[in-house]
Amino acid sequence: MKTIFAYTALLAGLAAGHISLISPCPRYSSVGTDCPSLPSGQSIDTQMNAPISSVTLGTSEPLCKHTVPWPTPAATWKAGETVTVKFNPNAAIHSGGNMEFSISYDGGKTFAVVYQVLRYAFLNSKPAGLTNTAEVLEYSFKLPEDLPNSDSAVFAWTWVNASGNREFYMNCADVKITGSSSSSYTAKEVTIANYPGYPTIPEFDGNYDTGINYYTTDAKNITVSPSGSSGGSGSGSTDTGSSSSPSYSSSADAAGSDGSGAASSAAPVSSAPASSGSSATSDAAAAESTAAPAGSDAAGAAGAAGGAYSTAEPDDGSANSSSDAENPRNAYGADTSGSAAESPAEAAAGGAADASSSDSGSDAGGECTSGLMRCSGAGYQICNSGKWSPVYDCGVGASCKGDEGHIYCGWP
Fold first, then answer.
1. Residues forming a β-bridge with 135
2. What is the pLDDT of residues 282-311, one digit of tens each?
3. Is-above-0.85 flag for pTM?
4. CB atoms within 10 A of CB 241
């Protein structure tokens, strides 16, 4: 029997900062919808919004966060159909970033991407500065038609945030896939970063091409199936050859070309949302940009094996620089505008809409280690480019909790 875990103020320990998947219900979620019964010996997780890894703090949890699956699928999907995934509205989205949705057939050891949202995760377009307010909390996309049938596939959401501590987020939901005659699925391997043994992607500081090569030109393909996986680099990772800080490709290189003009197969991608959702309740935003029309696709095309996909253009005035735009598995919607003229910290200092006008003893502008967060009064600050941002308000009735590194807004 399935249960809906109510989201209430009684979950005072649940971090209002960060974000998590709620549908399909990820393993052991306290706020997910239509969640299966817990496996024997497991407990509800009231910290689903937290990352599974923080380079800044040197902490990590297993990939998927929880490794024991639900006893029954959290959702049943048909290959080729359009599905909608939803996120916790009690969120802080750390100025966007890159996220992927992927599928595993070996219990979560290897993952192949089915959809990407690059640069502006949870946003409609490039933000004017630092923001923690979600503009998009639902994404709808078409599943590849060549996903093999399985009663025990693992669907994963992964995210690397644009601002704040260098973190990696991952939730996994157990799903059933039906309606396919395919025995395997080949696509881009999921990108893992800011996790032990993998590359560290630094703060974007206004340049939303930061680390984009790990999702495009440096990515490898993998074939997954109920009988095993092949290709890729193993353990669901993108093989970079090094865990040191990467060198980043320009936006002109981030279009799915290997430099020689040869195309590489990849998942359908969006640089703008496929479906709009409600805004988060906690507003640490700079002035919000105009939202792109929900579901506005720049192009629809018949892709490589797996059917037709749509690629949404970024809503920042830039054109898609992909040389493979006719193949949606290679169309990355690269932002050709280049680096922003000013960093998020500078933009926030100049006009964050909801930042506190008072320092409250916060030492605003003082030197700090880039990526750290800290409480200041009832709000919090983010260190960008060695300087503390203005104080962001946690919202009515909420206050900043935690220590430097794991900071969140919660209730008394």
1. none
2. 333 333 332 333 333 333 322 333 332 223
3. no
4. 8
